[in-house]
Amino acid sequence: MATLQDIRRRIASTENTRKITKAMELVSAAKLRRAQTRMESLRPYAGAMVEMMRDLATFAVEKNSFALLREHDSAKAEALLVITGDRGLAGAFNANVLRACLVAGHELEGKGLDRKLLVVGKKGIGTLRFRGLAIEQSWSGKSDRPTYADAEAIAHHVIDLYTTEQVDRVRLIYNHFKSSVEQTLMSVQILPIEPQEIYAGERERPLVTYLYEPDEAEILASLLPRYVEIAIFRALLESSASEQGARMTAMRNASESADDMIEDFTLSMNRARQASITQEILEVVAGAEALG
Amino acid sequence: MSDEHSLQVEIVTPDGSVYTGASSMVIVPGVEGELGFLPRHEPLVSLVAIGEARVQLPDGTWERFATGIGYVQVLFDKVLLVVDQAEQAGSIDVARATAARKRAEDRLALRGDPGAQAEVDFYKAEQALRRAENRLKVAART
Fold first, then answer.
1. Looking at this predicted complex, what is its ipTM?
2. CATH C-level class of A27-249
3. Residue A65 DSSP symbol
4. Prediction pTM value
């Protein structure tokens, strides 16, 4: 049976843990707000870019003349771009993405396709390397505060793999931010760019005729990589917000468990104390009777 | 239109809108040389390169920005500059930009070293170097 001393010690240690989990919850909440603001800030830029591409695409330029829109004739290899966090303690956040990545990898193997892994985040790199999988390229140290320059670097690598025909498809796997308590796993194709994303909805030819400099096709060709960058940057921000949300929830649960544990310990501590007092009284009474 | 002789300027980046305001003349670094816009310019879309964008305020003073790549759209006296990065000349931190240039140069110096190949993203370092140099160039003109 645990002595009074032992129980007191466990209560003190659980209280310390609770202090840490509470602090982590507050920190995550603050970081989540920041990540959400950045997602908001991206919207005008992304909106303007996509609208411009749609305008340009109405000139009915042959889509096969653009390397990023053209599908490769054969499908031999696929790249999986997996976005995880740099830290753990965020519930199933990292595990969900990695499981989806492994499943997708097996599917590709089943179809006899080659797969290349591109991994963002220390947690993903660690787990996949531990499993003995070859990682084509990895980036880490930015899950807290991804910058557009990070997205540009990743997009450049991905586009390079695609245009040199080392891979015939690129899929992005990440946690989509639904709300601060809910993340959904997303698996989307980013290359080749699905033409309907750009040629969507039979947009009417703009009423004004712009002077294009250089010509429409050249502008579209140089804006298409921006499209991939935006998709990756958005995924980085979403993943970052999701990570903070998941951590917030995990830490709140941990704090609540700590509350429960402290309650239980306090109860057994009181019981133990009562038992020892009763024991002492019994001893005193028994001693007095023996003397009498 | 209340004031026929002014342009509405907006500079948009992935980190949000950097500048909005009225202007009497705008100069942007187009891919084929600098492009200047006055009010009532014809509708135009052009690619822009890394460089310096200048916005003349109605009082005649100039606002200058170190800008990245993207495009510019001119329509009905509105100039929309959509670039991956933009910083107002006055708010450029020269010490930080110098440090960034140094860091990028150090990374690029590792090129050819097989051990560093996997660890360093040279493309990113190259871009960082170009951005830092542009920032310093724009800041130096103040």
1. 0.78
2. alpha beta
3. G
4. 0.83
